[in-house]
Amino acid sequence: MIEDRRAAWSLSGEVLAYIALVVLALVLRIAQLDVVPMTPNEARQALAAWRVVYPDAAGAAIVPDSPLLFALHTLGFSLLGASEFSARIFTALAGIGLALSPLLFRDFLGRARAFLFSLLLTFSPVLLMASRTDSAGVWTMLAVMIALAAFWRYQQSGQGRHVAVSMAAVAAMLFLTEPSGPVAVVVLLVALLGLIWSRRGLDDDEGLMPPLRLPGRDRTWPWASGALAAGILVVIVATLFTMYPSGLSGIGELLNGTLRGLTTARPLIPPFFPLAITLFYEPVLVVAGLIAVVVLFREGFESLMDRFFLGWLIAGTIAGAAYAGSGPEQALWIVIPLAGLTSGLLYRLLSRLRDPLWYGVPGWSRWVLMLLMIALLSMFTVHAQSVARSLLTNPTIGFQLSSVNAYNMVWLIIIGLFVIIGYFLSSSLWGEQTTQRGALLGVLAFGMVTSLGSGWNAAVPNAGDPVELWNRNATSAETILLRSTLMEMARRESSGFPIVELSVLAPEDGVVAWLLRDFLNARFITEVSAAENQRIVLLPGGVDQPALSSSYVGQRFGVSSVWDMSSLQFPDVLSWWMQRRTRVMGVLSDSVTLWLRQDVYNGVQADASVGP
Description:
Layout: H1 2-30, H2 40-53, H3 67-80, H4 84-100, H5 106-109, H6 111-122, H7 125-132, H8 136-157, H9 160-175, H10 181-198, H11 223-238, H12 249-261, H13 273-281, H14 283-299, H15 304-322, H16 332-350, H17 365-391, H18 406-430, H19 432-459, E1 474-475, H20 478-494, E2 502-504, H21 511-515, E3 522-524, E4 536-540, E5 552-562, H22 573-579, E6 587-597, H23 598-602
Parallel strand pairs: 2-3, 2-4
Antiparallel strand pairs: 1-5, 4-6, 5-6
């Protein structure tokens, strides 16, 4: 009876813990989802669906390179109307699903480790940013986790329905999610081949998985049912349940993008960008993952899941560096296996100490050490940020000690001495294992919280700042002002209905086109002369006083901005990493000017948004 009560209490505690994770992940992904301007890629994908849902919308039809996002946007716009929220909500929910996806591996990893895996993904800044920017990479990785879980279950049960699910998920990666989806499939195949190679000579009595059933080697592999499930999924999603047969062209666009990405990099994306994103935003996870690998090698790497995570990590890192079309969201190829490896390390740190020399160590000792480490790291970070700010005042490229506040430097030294002395004192009192566990737990806890904060800042407050590494071509917050100005013009000119006539010289699949989605009478032009004598005109910001055969009043709005990474100098590195501050900031790369003909401008009240 007591054991049954303990099992029920344990289960309810696990459920409550997952509910807390879901609430946290939901708040982080839904809050202020509609206040951040759309990126160019988001705008293009959203416009492709909007012009199908609302055929009267201005602009030509767009072939999307993500049939899955096209289907989800179509559903969202049909139910909620076209907005930033309705365009992003499904991907935000998919981010929550991806954070909880380790539950699919609960039987293989164990309850505790599966929860720790989910905990690490919930606090991951890379996953948070990708979820909030409507990235198809989130759907790719969710399909990866589903495919893997179904594949493992087939190894245990031999039931063909698991193969059908696995093959359908792989088909989604190949034909539905994004151009880099086929590359993710290659990464998984390489990791699987590495697992097969590493299993040679390994006993199969671990209880983790029986001998692998693989296509071509196992005659019971249900090719027919798997191919049927994959084909049905691809056709249904691409054609919107057969209501839009032209949607199949999106599959060709996706595969074309995959081939193009083999040699052509995205604009403003430097080489090895996924690895750089991981190191920049997940430094603690990287260090913890490397420590986990070292520990596993010392223990013989007996876990098959850990072997697979290591192969995935190596293959994902290489693919992110070799595939020219990689973007920031491809850092998930590295982050997820790192989190899987780190979950094993975290489980070891939380497990009971088995060293017979230190049986008398109290159980609360590691928690005291963890709290002390968090306090020391907090103090260290405060003074390190002060040092970083002081380096910005250095007029030269090199490091000058005179520009650093001596008070902060002294405290950094003192804190370092506290860590060293405290380590030896704790080791002599409670043993090295307890000390190391407590210190590592403190570093992981501190790193998870601070990394989550950096992810939130990158996704919301700094979404328009190109100094943020994630935002290489950041959409300016002035686009929100442009949208509100246009809606104000509609209220004055046409009683609130966005039916005013506009002549627009801008790409039909960009951010400006998305801002004009409700304006049915917007007319996209290819040269300035086509807007001659029009009432309201939107022209590129570089066009000053255009010859439009009349007198006009204009106001300029920034659309996007960039930052030259080559301007980063040595004294800026620390402040850039910790505070996103540099001596050379971002500059506008694209802007538009809203021109009002003089008679239209004269009819606007003096407190209007548009001014001379």
